[in-house]
Amino acid sequence: MSKFTLSQPSATLVMQSGYSLPDADGFSFPVIENKSNTFIERHNVDAWKFIAAMPDKSVDLILTDPLYDDKDIDINELMRVCKGHIIAFCDPMYRYFQPDEIHHWVKPVSTKNTTKRMSSFIEEILVLRQGDTYNHNLPWANYSGVWSDVVESENVHPFQKPLALIERLMRVYSNKGDVVFDPFFGSCVTGRAAKNLSRSFIGCEIDVETFSLSSDLGGKFRGR
Ligand SMILES: C[S@@+](CC[C@H](N)C(=O)[O-])C[C@H]1O[C@@H](n2cnc3c(N)ncnc32)[C@H](O)[C@@H]1O
Rounded to two decimals, what is the model's pTM? Predict the structure, then answer.
């Protein structure tokens, strides 16, 4: 993962969404009057600058997938802005925070350089529980805590997650109309899942080229 290099975020942050209030730092947040009017907001910005400007408890769920070697994950800031659970994919060797639950994604096995150590094909899914949202109305296999979904669409991001897996987590840990936040959205699988499941979505992606991978999602955005 450390070989993944970032291009700089767009210098032209021009677009303000019609239904948002700009705050002192120029970022804007949705005014949610009716949970049946869902929205998608994508921001081509550094997530930590965006988060610093977010009001307390402004989203219902954080579902995200930071870079493996990201040493800057500030769980206190994530807890500040989120009313509900915080879910993050991670390398089993480096947990960003102490979770209440750990699930496992068993990735497809592929050829790797094993001259110095054995391969690992498992990612952990850390869940820090806040609130009690837990929808237990799906078939049992959705609650095993061990999943082996594969990316079924075109693979556009090196660390892309399977849509079905993201949708499963979103169904269980949030409700229709909730606001889901992904500070590190990559190809924006979380945004696609939110759209499919009638959740609202706010997300950040710092890399300009990566940000453009989600341009088909539409919605309000700032950046390119
Ligand atoms: C592991 S990838 C996410 C992949 C995503 N789950 C998917 O399915 O496509 C992490 C992403 O976080 C982005 N990123 C890293 N640091 C960031 C930051 N400070 N703010 C916003 N995005 C960041 C990277 O550019 C990368 O695309």
Answer: 0.89
